[in-house]
Write a structure and sequence with these properties.
With 483 residues, the chain is α+β, with helices and mostly antiparallel strands. It has one domain. It has 9 helices and 21 strands. The protein has a 21-stranded antiparallel sheet that branches. A hairpin with a 4-residue loop joins strand 6 and strand 7. The longest helix is centred in the middle third of the chain and has 16 residues. The radius of gyration is 27 Å and the shape is elongated.
């Protein structure tokens, strides 16, 4: 029963909650302090900033590939079973995934060094989670069609591929303007894992062939592993089902969020390079790190090979003597030949490394400009820091995933309207959609900074038919360099 709950838990976390973690609207939108999270080497036109706790930054992304809610539940007169077979069983393959990613900023702040004004320090904490569950194509066909009509077909166990986590992150970074052309930055992170599950790099197959002593022979060859951290204690609390269950669960999650979970270390790096008066090149490498899992570990392993010709029935005398014990004997036989083993061995998980890179061309600059040289390192005035009225460019995002890197390419246009309002629109092509148009707004009302960024705007016309959705917003209090 607990193994069944574990499977349900992992599937629900993947299909209900995140995906790609691409934040192309926020990247290099330097009027927003949260852009430092995506590139510690971004331009920093602030004297100091402080996010409003709990409201300074929230983001959520969810996506499916080649499938939407509308595909299954539209009132189109087609039987649901038919749609499920066509759209899901036959329509998806092992490279299609369901996913989510979400991030909630707990606090965020930064300040410019009084002794060395070319340095800007940032710090904060946030919680984030993601799940990526690839569709187990062969196992879905086996469950839907059975094995009798699929003789000699090998159902591939490598289609089992899923991972997810929730983690809190404490970070501190430094951003340094080396000269008029180069700004670089780095950030150190301490991870505290709340929970993690991972089942990748599996091998094996299940096949049904003609038997010698019975009608069919079933053969299972398996090398399947699932590693979990932090889940068993959560399931224990849920199983207790007492009046204190919610309070106990909240206390556990809070403890793990405050460096009470499995700990790890990571780093971010980034830069902004001014090619000429109008052109800029930026890049960042995020979450180069690991988490060492040593507490609340439970790993599941299915490893071995076995064949079974099923239940031997003598006709016709056994037709009146069939019972559930016969079928249970078949199950018990497979479990005996290939037992599901568990252990609590510690392990290390690497972080999903993310790469950002962009090219930006500014035009319609403000008249106040700093002279292009390699010597000036002092922060300039507020009007000079806004070095564009219009900007065009492209952004590349790549994230490491179990089946290889996943990428997205974005074209963007930014527009400043005075010193109060900045707008950004994007067109992104990725694995989820080729029609992703995003729109972002940053509003500066005195010291109060508010931003809201939304992806896949066209999808909001019919959310059930959309494959992807993303939203980010937040509030900050900040002081510009000239203040």
């Amino acid at each position: 029963m607990r193994n069944f709950k574990l499977v349900v838990f992992t599937i629900l976390m993947g299909m209900v909650m995140s995906y790609a973690q691409n934040k192309q609207l926020l990247y290099d939108f330097y009027e927003i302090p949260q852009s430092l999270i995506l590139n510690p080497g971004v331009k920093t036109p602030y004297k100091w900033h402080m996010g409003i706790p709990g409201l300074s930054g929230f983001s959520f992304q969810a996506g499916t590939r080649d499938l939407s809610v509308n595909d299954l539940f539209a009132q189109d007169g087609i039987d649901f079973t038919t749609k499920f077979r066509d759209k899901v069983i036959n329509g998806l393959n092992q490279n299609d995934d369901f996913g989510y990613s979400g991030q909630l900023e707990i606090f965020n702040g930064g300040f410019r060094s009084s002794k060395r004004p070319s340095d800007y320090y940032s710090f904060g904490a946030y919680g984030e989670g993601f799940a990526s569950i690839f569709w187990p194509k062969d196992l879905a066909v086996l469950a839907f069609e059975g094995n009798a009509s699929n003789l000699n077909r090998r159902f591939n166990l490598s289609h089992i591929n899923q991972q997810g986590e929730a983690v809190s992150v404490l970070h501190f970074g430094i951003n340094r303007k080396i000269n008029d052309r180069w700004t670089v930055g780095a950030r150190a992170k301490i991870y505290s894992s709340i929970y993690e599950f991972k089942s990748t790099d599996n091998e094996g197959y299940f096949v049904t062939t003609q038997g010698d002593d019975n009608i069919y022979r079933n053969t299972l060859v398996a090398d399947v592993t699932m590693r979990t951290s932090g889940i068993e204690e959560i399931l224990d609390i849920i199983d207790e089902n007492t009046p204190n269950t919610q309070a106990d669960l909240a206390s556990l999650l809070l403890k793990r969020s405050l460096l009470g979970g499995n700990l790890g270390l990571g780093f971010d790096f980034g830069f902004t390079h001014k090619l000429n008066e109008n052109a800029f090149l930026t890049a960042s490498l995020l979450d180069v790190g690991f988490i060492y899992h040593s507490g609340d570990i439970k790993n599941y392993t299915l490893n071995g090979a076995a064949s079974n010709e099923g239940v031997e029935i003598r006709l016709p005398e056994d037709l009146t003597n069939l019972n559930n014990d016969i079928w249970q004997d078949l199950i018990d036989d497979f479990e005996r030949l290939i037992p599901l083993e568990t252990d609590d061995k510690t392990y290390v998980s690497l972080r999903p490394i993310k790469l950002n890179a962009s090219y930006r061309y500014n035009f319609g600059q403000y008249s106040a400009k700093s002279k292009a040289c390699d010597c000036e390192t002092k922060p300039v005035s507020k009007s000079e820091d806004f070095d564009y009225k219009n900007a065009l460019g492209a952004h590349l995002f790549v994230i490491n995933r179990p089946r290889g890197p996943q990428a997205a390419i974005t074209a963007f246009y930014q527009k400043r309207i005075g010193k109060v309002l900045a707008l950004k629109t994007t067109y992104t092509a990725d694995r989820y959609t080729l029609t992703n148009i995003g729109l972002g707004l940053n509003l500066q009302a005195g010291p109060v900074n508010f931003y809201i960024l939304g992806d896949n705007i066209l999808g909001y016309q019919n959310i059930p038919a959309s494959n992807y959705a993303s939203l980010q917003f937040g509030f900050n209090i900040l002081s510009w360099n000239s203040n």
